[in-house]
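Deliverable D5.2: sample structural annotation.
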Amino acid sequence: MVKSFDELISKVKECGKKTIAVAAAEDDAVLEAVAEAHKQGIADAILVGDEAKIRAIAAEMKMDLSDYRIINEPDKTAASLKAVKLAHDGEADMYMKGLLDTKTFLKSILDKEVGLRTGKTLSHVAVFQIEGVEQLLFLSDVAFITYPTLEDKVHIIENTVEVAHACGVECPKVAPLAAVEVVNPKMPCTVDADELRKMCEEGKITGCVVDGPLSMDIAIDPEAAAHKGAQDRPAAGKADVLLFPDIQAGNLVYKTLVHTAKCENGCILTGTKVPAILTSRSDSFKTKVNSIALAAVVAAALNH
C-alpha cells in the first residue's frame, strides 16, 4: 500500500513512463510541472497550444523542448479538442489542463466525437498525505459535484475506490461523513450514509467497506473513536476515503488542509476514459507534479 507521494512516484516508475496530452500548454506553471514529471521519469508530454508562446516560456525557464512533441494550435478551444483526441485515440494516457478555463476543458472531455466519456458520472478525487496520518486520505468530491444525490454518492465511491485500488489500497474503508455518527432523519446526509452502508453490505457497492454516518474525528482519529465508544466500527479511526455530503463541506476541508496542515496532495478527475488533471492556477508546483504522478498510477491500473 502506497503511503506517500514519494512511494507513489516510485510505483509509477515500476509501471513505465506514461504520456500526458496538455491542452493550451502555454502556461509557465504547467510547463514547469511537466518538465519535472519528465525529469523524474513519471511522464512524457505532448504539448498542444500556441507553439511560439510555448517556446518563449520554455526558453525563459531554460526548459529543453527537444524531447517533446508540440502541436501548434493557438485557438484554445481547438487546442483542447486536439489534445483530448490524443487521449481518446490512445496516443496519450492522461489529459491535462493548461492555460484554459475549466468550462472549455470540461466541454472537451464531454465532446461526443473526441472526448473521454465512459457513461460513468464524473467526479473529483483529492489525495492527501498528511503529517500525523499514517495512510493516504482520498477526499471526494471537493470540486466537481455540488450537491450529490444518493446515486451520485454511489458513483463517487466507485470512482474513488478505483483510485485507491490503483494506489495499492486493497479494500478501502469509506466514511460517508456527517456532523454526527448516528442516523438523524432531520439530517438527510446521515440517512444517505446509512443507505450507502446497507448497499455495501448487500453487495451493491463492491471493492470496499462503507461505514457511515461518521463524524470527521471518529473517521480519522482512533483516540476520538475510542472516546466515543465507536472503536469497533469498521472505518473508525482508519478511514481511507472521506465522502463529503456536498461540495461546501469538501471544499472547506480541502482548503483548510492545504493552507494549515503539513501535507502534500494531488488531484484528478475520474469517471473518464483516462485520468484528467484539472489543477488550478493557485495549486502549488508540488501539487501539480503529484497530480501527474497520481494520474499515471491510475492510468496504469486502467490499462492493466
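Annotation notes: The chain has two domains: 5-118+275-302, 123-260. The domain at 123-260 is CATH 3.40.718.10 (Isopropylmalate Dehydrogenase).
The annotation will be released with the project's public dataset once the embargo ends.
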